[in-house]
Amino acid sequence: MLGYVLRHPIRATVILIGGVILGTTGYFFSQIWLTFEAVATEEFNLQRASTAMLERDAAEVADAAADLAEAERILLEKFAASELANSAIDDELTAADVVVREQGYSNPAAAGRPLPDEMFDAYLGVGSDESGVRADTIILALAPNDGAAPILVSLPRDLYVANPCTGGWSRINAGLGGCTDFASGTELIALMVEGFTGIPIDHVARLSFDGFAGVVNALGGTGICTEHPARDINAGLDLPGGCIWADGATTLAWARSRNTEELINGEWQLVASSDFNRMRHQQDILFQLAKALANFGSLGSLSSRLEAVAGAVRVDSGWSFGDAIATAWAYRGISRDQVNRFSINVTDFRTGAGELVLAPTTNFNQLLAEVHPAAAR
């Protein structure tokens, strides 16, 4: 060996350097692999879940409807003093805005026109609330397979859609509670999104409140700007005004804020009060985090950032390491200007049980076709 080195010093040096590079790269990729393998997974088989719910008898469907009604009652009681039953929401609604559900309710705008599975790779991001069985954030990301720009749309958590578990209608966020013995929370909410959008869901990632704050901290925080000092007592938001660099807890409060007040001329004034305000904040945060995750300076820093995300996220069982890395690489460094976005058209709606929800007024396909004409049906 020594003789070879003495006779071929340049070749030996190249081999040594190459070996070190390959060894180091291999080590970090193995660490990334192990990190991804540590991500919690949840069974995800939409065909099986859909078939199982369709094959239930009438008594099992009635039990599911009763379970949902009881769960809603418990949650409304638990959060009676919070944003889930905030009197400010009632104050926003006028008699002209509120529709009372009649017997045999239906809504054509809530039924998506089916699109071919091969048109998009569809990724559903879900953030759970404090209960862990209701979705606080629902974001659908679509990657067109014709090479067009990706699409991002937030679905209001109070969107009133068909629930295949109960055979009736419910808020879309109730899907995260699952359908006992027939569909997991991930499967049920994905099926409800499919029913509303007409788009088959390929993969789901689920994040808890604590997990979200941890990811923000691991990626260095986010920027938040307000013209005046701002607060939302229900969300735990308290901002000094101007632009700040926020930690995970403050970013979470900003993402959750539904009734934001600002201190203007010495008085607290409501400046934003809707789920759409929350969704704008959430999408802005998402782009900031994506940029932070993409701007790694070394394989080591990439590995550590992925480790932070891995500990907070639960993904569907069908999302392989290769698929996840390929998706992340394809959209590395993407900015909001490179993504098509749109909002869901809704109206305030009061159910027969007196619950305030949001009823869609325009079919999802019509809205999607405005940013992706190939989806027109």
Give a structural overview.
With 377 residues, the protein is α+β, with helices and mostly antiparallel strands. The protein has three domains: 2-37; 42-208 and 315-375, Nucleotidyltransferase, domain 5; 219-311, Aminopeptidase (3-Layer(aba) Sandwich). It has twelve helices and 17 strands. The protein has helices at residues 2-7, 9-37, 46-54, 58-78, 87-92, 185-197, 209-218, 248-256, 275-294, 299-310, 321-330, 364-371, and strands spanning 40-42, 120-128, 135-144, 151-154, 160-163, 168-171, 203-207, 222-226, 230-232, 237-239, 242-246, 259-264, 267-273, 313-316, 340-341, 346-350, 356-360. The strands form five sheets. The protein has a seven-stranded mixed beta sheet. A hairpin with a 2-residue loop joins β12 and β13. The protein is globular and about 55 Å long. The N and C termini lie far apart (70 Å).
Which band does the percent of strand residues land in? 15-25%
| Strand arrangement in the largest pleated sheet | 1-14-7-2-3-4-15
Q: Per CATH, which architecture of the largest domain?
A: 2-Layer Sandwich
**Strand count:** 17
Uncertain runs are 11-31, 81-102
| Distance linking N and C termini | 70 Å
Major sheet size, sense and barrel closure:
7 strands, mixed
Average pLDDT, all residues: 79
Number of domains: 3
Protein traits:
377 residues, alpha+beta, Nucleotidyltransferase, domain 5, Aminopeptidase, 3 domains, 7-stranded mixed sheet, 4-stranded antiparallel sheet, 17 strands, 41% helix, 22% strand, globular
Secondary-structure blueprint:
Blueprint: H1 2-7, H2 9-37, E1 40-42, H3 46-54, H4 58-78, H5 87-92, E2 120-128, E3 135-144, E4 151-154, E5 160-163, E6 168-171, H6 185-197, E7 203-207, H7 209-218, E8 222-226, E9 230-232, E10 237-239, E11 242-246, H8 248-256, E12 259-264, E13 267-273, H9 275-294, H10 299-310, E14 313-316, H11 321-330, E15 340-341, E16 346-350, E17 356-360, H12 364-371
Parallel strand pairs: 1-14, 2-7, 4-15
Antiparallel strand pairs: 2-3, 3-4, 5-6, 7-14, 8-11, 9-10, 9-12, 12-13, 16-17
